[in-house]
Amino acid sequence: FFERWFGFKLPRPLANERLEALRRFAVLARVSGGRLPAEEVKHFLTAGFSLLQARALQRRASAR
């Protein structure tokens, strides 16, 4: 309704911040061959994931 009347879309919040952090980390890990900056790993850990999970995703991404 709002989009029709005013002609622009409202930003929609992410469904789940933790899931978005996982998606971002997985995409970056794949694109970089598993070599992510420390800041990205820190962001992933802050979202509630463990270092073991981060390393497993990085290994998986570099195996390609």
> For the residues shown, what is the average pLDDT?
88
Portion in strands: under 5%
**N-end to C-end Cα span:** 46 Å
Helix content: 55-70%
Helix-strand sequence: HHHH
Rg:
16 Å
Oligomeric description of these chains = single chain
The total of helices stands at: 4
Identify the overall geometry.
elongated
Structural class: mainly alpha
Query: What is the count of β-strands?
Result: 0
Spans where pLDDT lies below 50 across 5 or more residues:
none
Summarize the biggest pleated sheet.
none
Descriptive overview:
This protein has helices at 2-6, 17-31, 38-46, 51-62. It is an all-alpha fold. The N and C termini lie far apart (46 Å).
Topology:
Blueprint: H1 2-6, H2 17-31, H3 38-46, H4 51-62
Helix pairs in contact: 2-4
Concise summary:
The chain has 64 residues and is an all-alpha fold. The protein has 4 helices and no strands.
Question: Could you list some keywords that capture this structure?
Answer:
single chain; mainly alpha; 64% helix; 64 residues
